[in-house]
Amino acid sequence: MPGENLTRDEARERAALLSVDGYEVSLDLRSATGGTGGAGADGGDGAVGPRTFRSVTTLRFRCAEPGASSFADLIAPSVTAVSLNGRDLDPGEVFDGSRILLEDLAADNELVVDAQCAYSRTGEGMHRFVDPEDGEVYCYTQYEPADARRVFANFEQPDLKAPYRFEVRAPEGWTVWSNGVGELTDGVWRFAETKPISTYITCVVAGPYHYVTDTYERELPDGTRLEIPLGAMCRKGLVPHFDADDVFLVTKQGLDFFHDHVDYPYPFGKYDQAFVPEYNLGAMENPGLVTFREEFIFRGKVTQASYEARANVILHEMAHMWFGDLVTMEWWDDLWLKESFADFMGAFSLVGATRFTDGWITFANRRKAWAYRADQLPSTHPITADIRDLQDAKLNFDGITYAKGASVLKQLVAYVGQDAFLEGARRYFKRHAYGNTRLGDLLSVLEETSGRDMAAWTRSWLQTAGVNSLTPQVLLRADGRVEELAVVQEAAESHPELRPHRVAVGLYRRTGDGALERYARAEADVEGARTVVAELAGAEAPELVLVNDDDLTYCKIRFDETSLATLRAHLGALTDPLARALCWSALWNMTRDALLPAREFVGLVLRFGGRESDIGVLQMLHAWAESALVHYAAPAWRETGGRLLAEGARRELEAAAPGSEQQLAWARFFARSAGAPGDFQLLQELLSGTVTVDGLDVDQELRWVFLEPLAAHGFADEKALAEELARDDTASGKRHQVRCLAARPSAEVKAQAWERVVESDELSNALVEATIAGFAQPSQRELLAPYTEKYFAVIERVWSERSIQIGMDVVRGLFPALQDPQATLDTTDAWLAAHEDAAPALRRLVLEARDDLARALRGQACDAAAG
């Protein structure tokens, strides 16, 4: 990986020297089918090696300093020929495996590179997937931030935009898609030239995909008619589950929303959406051809939270057509200019245009939880980050760039006003269409439209790291009314910035029927260490004060003692679902911060979770309760806590309305909580059908959910899992089986899983992920103990030898978080001290895992003290 890195300084130097006129890229994917791979399958020379395809790139570009030298990017097993301005160059002299040296450049240049590029099994570059169900082969590309160079020679940086013409030769019977409209002529798929775009959002999808079409139509303000061809595709095996109509519905609603609000017609012609196998991300915003992980096609019954999540991702990627594709950041420092905006606009359009009108609840409860965690890690960074190279860029697709950035934009909308914000966006698109921008370009239009000085806001919110805590202070008069209500702001010692917050403060009391409802609300600008909210003086004494009511700002909410006591007794009585979600989020943050014992959080979930009406919040509570037990509960209480969770989940499962989403959510949580013989007996009976729960459909996906804990506790052996795979002999079934196989409680099983992931590259990215997920079982701490030393012995080698995606999966997924925490912490510190010169991105991952472990230890101490 280090040899494939590109620094910011190198990119800036190249951008100052070169400008690109266009690419012509010819790919021959006929080698994707047949044979066993390797050069022999492609070139007939009998050589052993990766399966490859031919890639011929013609790149036309200008040089500001004739006679200067530069380089093009390419990662390929071999290069057949290189020609620069008609001169044949020796590939052995100019190509080092990741770069092509370009010397003595002219003012106008033409580079032609003929290479053998490798198909990927890691989801990076041209990924090749063989469907175990029918043997069909499917290909797609995934590039962000810098993997287009695995498919064709280029200048791999976002500010060297250019138009592209692709042509692809494919196996007979395949269809090929790219960013532009394609046509098959004489056995070659040729695609219309794209608008100027960055390398990382070019795309090719090829294979026997099932393809469905529709059309979006709209009359524009100038009276012209906009017509956008729509397409959606998936593997043949997923056709019975493919609800393309709902995908198209959300797509059309989103296109309406964005055309209403951004005043810039969709600029990329068609709009295809491909659901592809073994995808590393949620989705990718390739203009005209968005790619998604195929898990968004649901093979079994799921809750509305899953449909909402899919709709949000569809709209997030659509927002990128403007925020990121039409206008792109110059370098990854300003990644937030696309990801923060897409995350915010995804939620904004979800609520404004679709059936998911409670999307801000999910944003407050789920997305912000991701941000709060990331912003308290030692690797936290300002939203406008310092991205030194591509490895930094890869790791900065994180909770800061996405969820904190989106939260800050929500605060910005409250600060400048929605109309000024949207008008600023409109001017930004028109001013910088098909160009590249920095932070200042956006701020200048917002200053124009809002009349506000953005400098102070920018310094506080975009250029500093860390999350503030806001706590109410209530002084009461003798008559019981509020004398003074103030908001106290605190910051971590490591990140002391006290930011300006526009907040709403809500006062809540119980009504005659016991409901906990808001009776007073005031908005205020919180600045500095203490701010008095004068409007609330004289109000009746509150039982609950909710700072950041309506979730206007980005902060950790704290409670005064009266409010905390009210939540302990009456959390389920809060009638407003957003207020309830905010309280749950605040209580979880308190648990993570060792201010609330884990057993108390688990107790609150068991007491009030069954009354939670928002299914997304309920599923988040299940995940948090599980994490509280595994990581933050005192070891001596874990067995008791696990029994309580399983018993509570079973009660709620039996009490839930038949066929309801709550019933399904509690069934899944019961399976994950199972720990007693009776729990496993019930799961076995549900699988065999000897016992049923009225309304609960134990479909194939739920069967695998039940099988994993059975496998992890020794109640489902290899034969049982093979029989289940025979029932579900699909790619999805194989992933489930691999995860369950690795979950079995055997030293031999763990050793085999470790070997397949760490010492071999035989597994695809999806199966690496599944194996790691099965390997680390909380109930198997003793079995995992030997792997602490092994982990630290191999991670530097893994990082240097494997692709960055697999390296991240291994370093994060196999960190020994479930072993003796203090011993692991000491070992981690020793490794960090001895490896100060390790790759910065690798050290960052280890530091993040170390911080999570130290936080868990503080939580365990807090919980033990409560015992």
Count of DSSP H/I helices? 29
Strand content: 15-25%
Distance between the termini: 48 Å
- Rg calc: 28 Å
- Tell me how many strands there are: 28
Describe this structure in words.
The chain has about 850 residues and is of the alpha+beta class. It is about 45% helix and about 20% strand. The strands form seven sheets. Strands 5-4-7-2-1-10-13-12 form an eight-stranded mixed sheet. A five-stranded mixed sheet has the order 15-16-17-19-18, with helices on one face. Helix 7 packs across helix 9 and helix 24 (about 765-775) packs parallel to helix 27 (about 805-815). The chain is globular, with a radius of gyration of 28 Å. Residues about 35-45 have low confidence and may be disordered.
Secondary-structure blueprint of this entry?
Layout: H1 8-17, E1 18-28, H2 39-43, E2 52-63, E3 70-73, E4 78-84, E5 87-89, H3 91-94, E6 99-102, E7 108-118, E8 125-130, E9 137-142, E10 164-169, E11 175-178, E12 182-185, E13 188-191, E14 204-207, E15 210-219, E16 225-234, H4 244-262, E17 271-276, E18 283-284, E19 289-293, H5 304-320, E20 328-329, H6 336-353, H7 359-374, H8 390-395, H9 400-416, H10 418-432, E21 436-437, H11 439-450, H12 454-461, E22 469-476, E23 482-490, E24 501-510, E25 516-526, E26 530-532, E27 544-547, E28 556-557, H13 561-570, H14 577-592, H15 598-608, H16 615-632, H17 635-655, H18 661-673, H19 677-688, H20 700-712, H21 718-727, H22 731-743, H23 747-759, H24 765-775, H25 781-784, H26 787-801, H27 804-813, H28 821-834, H29 840-866
Parallel strand pairs: 1-10, 16-17, 17-19, 20-21, 22-28
Antiparallel strand pairs: 1-2, 2-7, 3-6, 4-5, 4-7, 8-9, 9-14, 10-13, 11-14, 12-13, 15-16, 18-19, 22-23, 23-26, 24-25, 24-27
Helix pairs in contact: 4-5, 4-6, 5-6, 6-9, 7-9, 7-14, 9-10, 10-11, 14-16, 15-16, 16-17, 16-18, 17-18, 18-20, 19-20, 20-22, 21-22, 22-24, 23-24, 24-27, 26-27, 28-29
